[in-house]
Structures are given as structure tokens and as C-alpha cells.
Amino acid sequence: MIWFKDLFDKEKLPTFSPMAISPDMENEYLFFETVENEPPYSLKHWLDYFKKKCIKFKPQYLKAIKQQIRKGDFKNPHKFPDYFDNEFDFICMAFQFGNSPKEIVCNLGLAFVKNGELVYWTNYNILPPDEEDAFLIPKDRVVRLHELEHVQNFKKLWDSKLSEICNNNLLVIYDSVVELSILKTLFLNYSIENFNFWYTDVLSLVEFSGNSEKLAELGREFGFKVKKEEDAKEDAVTCANVFHELSIVNPNYLNHIRHLDMGN
Fold first, then answer.
1. Which overall architecture, per CATH, does domain 86-260 show?
2. Share of the chain above pLDDT 70, in %
3. Is there a contact between 10 and 65 (Cβ–Cβ < 8 Å)?
């Protein structure tokens, strides 16, 4: 665990931007991951833009971009979370739901902060085990239909990726009543027992700040751009930014960290 009282550097505020990668950035994983998943035509426009500005890329970055533009087959040489030694200041988790008469779909978003910087963000689409699990959807949440290309089994996702990440880092959620109940329900329904992590929630800090209790409004109050569309990944990024700010005004946030395992 590497979460401490004076962890954050104000000059390294973890913010998200569509241009999150830069030609000389240190985070090779994020750069290569972006190049791998970006359409070649977008990369070409991006490369041309920086060439006009006479800004040079690191040699390995330029090579990756040219390969993706030319062949479209570039693969990130680094693995997650190994590249970051699976050690993060904290990880933010958020959920969004979409449903139709035949299915209930959940989008799980994650944002990873290391050394006071947002280093990676991603999301996964999962399905509850059966239609009887409609109670997973919080009654006070707006439910929207998402066009999903990939849906994963939560147990396989937890066993293969999430357990290693969550069990070894501080997990930050927005509302422990909602998000934690969703996690507990998923653990129960999938008979998952290998969870043992520390967590805290944004709302527990909001009580001492006097700020709005709505995540999007909180983000805007602290000066962050918050996208309007429903996206768990964006929610996780907003949660990371907000938690960072609240931890500054309330340095005793460590007092609000709790533990979750099979025993509780």
C-alpha cells in the first residue's frame, strides 16, 4: 500500500484530456496503449500537427506511430499493471447501467493514480448472472441503453485482472452505499471469495467540505471539465480528480478508510 497523508503534488493534478498523451511523456504504457487503439488516420493528423509545431517525438514513440499508420498492427509492448508495479496511490471505481427488456448491462469504469498523476483509465462491460439481478440497478440512477460490443463475465474479469489490482491498492468509490452494495452483490452472486481490500468514498469527505454531493457538480466546482454523456470511465476520472481535491482540504481522509473481506 502506498497511500499516505502528503501524497499528492499540486503541480501534478490528475486531469483527463483527449490529448492525454504527449511526444515526450514518461508514461510509455499510456502512450503505446493510445497508439495501439487509435485509428491510423487520427494518428496521422496528430503527427502532422506536432510536425508543424516542430515538436519532436521520442524515437520509440515515433516508430510506434509510423507502424500504426502504415500497417495498423502496433501492439503495446508493456503489460498492465506490471508496468506500474501494480502500485498506485489509489484506484477509482464507478458503475453505469443500461438495460433493455432482455438484458441488464453494467459498465465498470476504473481510473488509476500514481505519484499524484492520472496514469491510466479504462472500462469493462459486464452482465449480472441472470435477469433476477435487476435489483443491482440503484433506484435513483438514470438508466440508459448502451450499444455494447464486448460483455465479460464478472467472475472471470475479477479472477484474471481486478482481484490483483483491487486487493493491493486503495479503492476509492463515490458512494459506499451504492457502489459498495453493487460490488457485494456481484461477489455474492458469482460466489467470489478472494476479495480483501481497503476502500474509502468521496461522500464521506464531502460531509466536511460543504460542497455539492453530486459527482458531476463536484467536478465542475473544482474546475474540471465533466462530460455530459453517461460513461463509467469518465465518472471514475472525475471521481479521481474530486478525491484528490477533497483530500487536500481534508488531510485526515485516512480516518475514513475501511476494510472489506469475506468477514464483513
1. 2-Layer Sandwich (3.30)
2. 72
3. no
